[in-house]
Design a protein that fits this description.
The chain is mainly α. Helix content is about 50%, strand content about 10%.
């Protein structure tokens, strides 16, 4: 007859159906203690699982009752955790990446069994399928955030995504316009119903959502100010929401050309602008940029209009967001201090303005190099004359 097990060692017995069962008190992730049952057909495997559970409790490591798969926990993470942490637009991007890439590759694997090799194989498969390194980076970024949350809930004890080498990716150069090209575009778009939108893009470097979200009540005509404080996007439906960061909220001067264009909009539409409202409540009503029906303009329609007008003007095709880069670079070329450029664009960091949005241009390179060439040419003749007066004959260098 076997030794009677002591308190804290759990119990292990054979059931009437022939399977083995182990029971023990363990600590759960929520801090409570619970008697759990481990069942299996093999005595040794049940005994091993019992020992592991008791070892975890002994080392104050919570016992996980549910054996999550990667896919199951992804669903839980996206449903219960992420909506409280990230914006709706980011959430929708995560959903697409998870359903298209992460779940097909890793969804059926047990969360506790996920290892470095699994993640590497998934990234290799993406590469073989022709996906870019950027897709691989997004895959790893989302997976790492997901596994970090699983660690916080003490379901796993390491983040294998952080141990895998990040896929390499060389970003494509952003194509921007010169100030002359931007001016030509605005000239060609001056009679278009959405002219004011493109003027705001290229004058202030505003984001698309900010342009679409600007309302008459955000404009203080009396004091000559524009308050950028909301944005409009389509996330299932057209929605108005607060801006991404505190720095995105900013006050810009109402320039004469912009004021005149706004007044033209008032006359053309036969409307009475809503007076400036210092109290901010997100709303889709009273937007400056509107459709023919007077409703907030669809983001896709603005992009489509931009493409048509770009072609009409015979200009290089660029993305709508590249107008923001164009404005940022123009500020640099005009000698605007980087701190002022950062605040105008609403960036949270000067580094973002400097390293991402402001670009070198052939014209500024030509001016800089021409100035250097002139400086070198100016000193060349004087340097030669000085050498002739001061250097000793060559044979002097070899005197023994």
């Amino acid at each position: 007859m076997g030794r009677r097990r002591s308190n804290g060692e759990g119990t292990l017995f054979k059931r009437k159906d022939g399977r083995w069962s182990a029971q023990a008190y363990v600590k759960l992730p929520n801090g409570t203690t619970k008697r759990v049952c481990i069942t299996g057909r093999d005595y040794e495997s049940v005994k091993k699982k019992l020992r592991e559970a008791l070892d975890q409790t002994h080392h104050n490591i919570p016992f996980v009752e549910k054996e999550w798969t990667v896919g199951e926990y992804l669903d839980y993470w996206m449903r219960e955790v992420q909506p409280n942490r990230i914006r709706e637009t980011t959430l929708s991007v995560y959903r697409v990446k998870i359903e298209h890439y992460i779940k097909p590759a890793l969804g059926g694997i047990k969360l506790s069994s996920l290892n470095i090799q699994d993640v590497r194989r998934a990234l290799d498969t993406l590469k073989i399928q022709g996906h870019s390194g950027r897709t691989g980076q997004h895959f790893l970024q989302i997976l790492s955030s997901y596994l970090t949350n699983a660690m916080r809930e003490e379901l796993i004890f390491r983040n294998v995504a952080q141990l895998v080498d990040k896929p390499k990716h060389t970003p494509k150069a952003t194509v921007i316009w010169t100030t002359e090209q931007a001016a030509l575009f605005l000239e060609n778009a001056k009679d278009h119903p959405q002219h004011i939108a493109f003027l705001l893009f290229l004058t202030y470097g505003m984001r698309r959502g900010e342009v679409l979200g600007l309302r008459w009540e955000d404009i203080d005509f009396e004091n000559g100010l524009i308050h950028v404080r909301q944005q409009i996007d389509r996330i299932g439906e057209i929605k108005a929401r607060d801006l991404k960061t505190a720095n995105s909220r900013r006050i810009l001067p109402l320039l004469a050309n912009v004021r005149a264009t706004l007044m033209d909009c008032v006359v053309e539409r036969g409307i009475e602008p809503t007076p400036f409202n210092p109290y901010f409540i997100p709303s889709t009503k009273g937007t400056v940029v509107v459709s023919e029906a007077g409703t907030p303009l669809e983001p896709r329609n603005l992009t489509r209009c931009f493409g048509i007008l770009t072609k009409k003007a015979g200009l290089p095709r660029i993305k709508v967001h590249a107008m923001r880069h164009t404005a940022a670079t123009a500020l640099k070329d005009l000698g605007v201090p980087i701190k002022d450029a950062q605040l105008i664009l609403g960036h949270s960091s000067i580094t973002t303005t400097l390293n991402i949005y402001q670009h070198g241009t052939p014209e500024t390179h030509r001016v800089a190099l021409s100035a250097l060439e002139k400086r070198l040419s100016t000193r060349k003749s004087g340097f030669t004359a000085y050498n002739q007066m001061t250097l000793s004959p060559p044979h002097y260098l070899y005197t023994i």
